[in-house]
Amino acid sequence: MKRAKLSENNEDRLSDLPDCVLIHLMSFLPTQVAVQTCILSRRWKGLWKRLPTLILHYRHFSSMTSFNRFVPKVLSFRDDSVPLQHLEFNYNGRVRPHLLKRVLRYALSYDIQQLKLTYNCDLDLPPSLFLCQTLTSLDLTVFHRSQSFPKSLNLTALTSLSLYKFTFGHSELVEPFSSCIKLKTLVIHNCAIGDTQILCISNATLVNLDIRSYQAYKIVLSTPNLCSFAFSGFILFSWLQLFANVRSLTLYSSTLQVLSSIPDLLNTEAPCFGNLKSLIVKVKNILPPNQRPGRIYKSKKAELKPVPDGVVDYLIRNSPFAEITIINC
Questions:
Q1: What is the pLDDT of residue 185?
Q2: Would you state the pLDDT for residue 308?
Q3: Average of pLDDT values for 237-263?
Q4: Residue 301: what pLDDT?
Q5: What residues contact 65, with CB distance under 8 A and at least 6 apart?
């Protein structure tokens, strides 16, 4: 950690900033780096203890042992009078259950607003997590397939929910999202379904939905305010009629391949996306060398060779204002 740079008049202008500004700047740093600022000068000593954000990623440490020692110390020495707004805990290795329990217990006791967890541990998340009335954003990634998602949620302040590699329950109909009365964005990636093979997404406030699934199961939608939908995996043709009001639709080329297998598709009545303004098609590593990732190509009549002939034109047949975007990813 370098000491604060002095100006030509030996003035430390950075340290002259108000505490609230310095703490705001430090909140974007990994917590390990933020703690190290205490060696800059007496002015910086203890500022990190008032951080409203904790970013705890194992990759910022030389070893798992140092990470396991650091996390409890940060939780112990942090200023208890400061609300905790945002916490990220990322541990791709085999996390110790007691460490994850302590992190969750700490976050919930300080009325956490935004929580992002990535972990590998055979540990059921505490029911109190799914009853937290202050959570506005919840991002959960689990690398242990036995982790089951609760049958229902009581997260009344939640606006954004992202789930990766969870298993939804074993009842006849799984419907966990209907009680999230402020939910706007829902992301479900690589999640599994139990014996029922039916996932119901019922939410009156949901605006953005992103599903990526490689397991064949039935999804029942009741989302009257849905505006943006992104999907990769197996799709039923009848689904398309559910998105008549969307303004933005994202599909992967693999999904279009599935659609193209429907007999005589192009001669059937096309779906009516009257409000559609943007159709995004994501394809993988098939564009020529002069059109590599990072560039986005837009046109009214884009060259659609990366996807089955005619499928995209079919989808926008009743969408006169739709713009096609092909992204190489």
A1: 97
A2: 79
A3: 75
A4: 40
A5: none
The pLDDT of residue 187: 95
Mean pLDDT (whole number) for 134-149: 84
pLDDT recorded at residue 287: 47
Residues paired with 220 in a beta bridge? 200
Task: Taking residues 124-138, report their average pLDDT.
Answer: 92
- pTM, entire model: 0.75
Task: With CA atoms as reference, report the closest residue to 218 among 203, 237, 243, 235.
Answer: 235
Which range (74-83, 114-123, 232-241, 305-314) has the least confidence? 232-241
- Which of 185, 315, 77, 112 lies closest to 89, judged by CA? 112
Cα(249)–Cα(265) distance, rounded to whole angstroms?
19
Task: Name which of 165, 174, 171 is nearest 141 in CA terms.
Answer: 165
| CB-based contacts of 26-35 (< 8 A; 24+ apart in sequence) | 26/51, 27/51, 27/52, 27/53, 27/86, 28/53, 29/55, 30/55, 30/56, 30/57, 30/60, 31/55, 31/56, 31/74, 32/60, 32/61, 32/70, 33/1, 33/60, 35/74
Contact by Cβ (8 Å): 217, 197:
yes
The 3-state secondary structure of the chain, one letter per residue: CCCCCCCCCCCCCCCCCCHHHHHHHHCCCCHHHHHHHHHCCHHHCCHHHHCCEEEEEHHHCCCHHHHHHHHHHHHHHCCCCCCCCEEEEEEEEECCHHHHHHHHHHHHHCCCCEEEEEEECCCCCCHHHHHCCCCCEEEEEECCCCCECCCCCCCCCCCEEEEECCEECCCCCECCCCCCCCCCEEEEECCEECCCCEEEEECCCCCEEEEECCCCCEEEEECCCCCEEEEECCCCHHHHHHHCCCCEEEEEHHHHHHHHCCCCHHHCCCCCCCCCCEEEEEECCCCCCCCCCCCEEEECCCCCCCCCCCHHHHHCCCCCCCEEEEEEC
The residue whose two tokens read 């989302």 is: 223
Does position 271 have pLDDT exceeding 80, yes or no? no
Kindly report the backbone phi and psi dihedral angles of residue 85, in degrees, each rounded to the nearest multiple of 5, phi listed first: -90, -40
